[in-house]
Amino acid sequence: MVTIIGSDGFIGHRVKKWAEYLKINHTGVYFEDKEKGNIHFEEYIGSELLKETDTLVIAAGNSNHNLPRHNFTKALKMDLSYLEKLEKAELRADIVFLSSAAVYYGHEGKVDEETSVEPLDYYGLSKLYSEYMVRLIAGKTGKKLIIYRLTNAFGKNEKRKRLFDNIIECIKTGAPLKITGKGESYINPVPVEKVAEILIKSALEIRKALGEKKLEVINLTSKEEVRVIDIVKSIENKYDLKWVFSGQEESPVKFIVKSRKLENFLTRLGIEIEPLNRSIERFLVSYGL
Questions:
Q1: How far is it, in rounded angstroms, from Cα 57 to Cα 34?
Q2: Can you tell me whether residue 80 is helix, strand or coil?
Q3: pTM, whole model, 2 decimals?
Q4: Distance, CA of 74 to CA of 172 (rounded, Å)
């Protein structure tokens, strides 16, 4: 059985939908929205379902980039408390874990999975701690682990006031899109539906895909190396999107995440990622634009 931790989240809910589509024996574990899961996390920890889980997809944790700069301890606790409970509950399952490319903060230029991670950013540091924790869980049981370091996921119903949500609102209202700094941060986004497909199919094929290896760390990013300003300029004329530069960016993303390892791994899983401009176009059309 595949269990999805965080099935009520932006990405986790899409993972559950994929599990339903593929008719996989699965359980959705929610934290807040019971309409998007089968069992609350606290109930799952003490249930027989934990022992029945063959592979665990973890798509939970803090996703607010601004929170850690104001209260790092709170953000860290949010990321680690549920992982600590999983460790104490003696989980014995292979794991597919969704982390963040924010662990590369501090680097400039191209980075890959072999690049050292010593993030000069609270958010990146919180994500690195969560990676260490999930490695501890998998290491104690000798189970297999895939860690995906996601750059950015976009799609319908994402958190308000993220880039793509703001773009939609500004196209509809005619208000100018405010771009922090000069829009030079690399974003390299991936459609949320594709992220979910990768996670669930990795869970199904984890033993075959890893072979003798116990751990694989993979950057989850678009093939294209694009900045915020590149995305805005690619759609401004067709959709009459107005924009202005506004303020300074606190932690600009100066690193470019390489996708070669991801592409090779997805070939093994039989998954394709379409060109980013086509994905963005489909996203905009889904809003009737």
A1: 18
A2: helix
A3: 0.95
A4: 36
How much is the pLDDT for 175?
A: 96
Which of these, 130, 71, 133, 139, lies nearest to 102 by C-alpha position? 130
Among candidates 65, 188, 185, 187, which has minimal Cα distance to 127? 65
Asked whether 53 and 93 are in contact (CB, 8 A), the reply is yes
Q: Can you say whether the dihedral through the CA atoms of 189, 69, 111, 266 is positive or negative?
A: negative
Q: Provide φ and ψ at 192, rounded to 5°.
A: -60, -35
Residue 63: its pLDDT value, please?
Answer: 72
- Chain CA centroid to CA 217, Å: 13
CA dihedral over 199, 201, 207, 210, signed as positive or negative = negative
For the residues of 220-288, what is the DSSP string, one character each? E--SS--BHHHHHHHHTTTTT--EEEES--SS---EEE--HHHHHHHHHHT-----HHHHHHHHHHTTT
Nearest to 101 by CA among 120, 128, 136: 128
Q: What is the pLDDT of residue 68?
A: 66
- pLDDT tens by residue, 119-162: 988 889 999 999 999 999 999 989 999 999 999 999 988 777 78
The DSSP H or E segment spanning 95 is strand 94-100
Task: Decide if 256 contacts 110 (C-beta within 8 A).
Answer: yes
Rounded to whole angstroms, the Cα distance separating 270 from 163 reads 30
Give pLDDT < 70 ranges for the chain: 65-69
Question: What is the distance between the alpha carbons of residues 81 and 62, in angstroms, rounded to a whole number?
Answer: 11
